[in-house]
Design goal:
alpha+beta; 35% strand; elongated; three-stranded antiparallel beta sheet; 5 helices; two-stranded antiparallel sheet
Length: 124
């Protein structure tokens, strides 16, 4: 298991290798490297780990930290039988912290609705 950096990140170790021509024979060059990478967790667990909270409700009290961490993060969803990757963009800053009943949007087919009604209809 990779070492933990905190705030939802791990250290990943790796290496680069290349073959270099030498004067009389080829040389193999091997460089080691480390990099900080986001942990591969579900979003709720990532949020709790990132802010050091045990309960997601405790994590929501740190909205400004979460907004900064989640902005431009790629999230994979697996509902409806399909896997999709979404990027959390800057518009998340406007809606972050609003309850689903207040988050309104226009559907492709149908009237304007809010997130709560949409998911209740879609996944009865």
């Amino acid at each position: 298991h990779p070492p933990n950096l905190g705030e939802g990140c791990d250290i990943w170790e790796g290496y680069f290798q290349s073959l270099r021509p030498g004067q009389w024979k080829p040389y193999i060059k091997i460089d080691t490297s480390v990099s900080g990478m986001m942990k591969d967790l579900n979003l709720i667990d990532f949020i709790c780990d990132a802010v050091g909270a045990q309960d997601p409700r405790d994590a929501m009290r740190k909205k400004m930290v979460l907004q900064r961490m989640l902005c431009n993060l790629k999230v994979a969803t697996r509902h409806g039988g399909f896997r999709r990757v979404h990027k959390i963009n800057n518009s998340a800053r406007k809606v972050f912290g609003q309850p689903p009943s207040q988050l309104k949007f226009k559907q492709e087919e149908g009237p304007e609705t809010n997130a709560e009604e949409y998911f209740m209809q879609k996944y009865k």
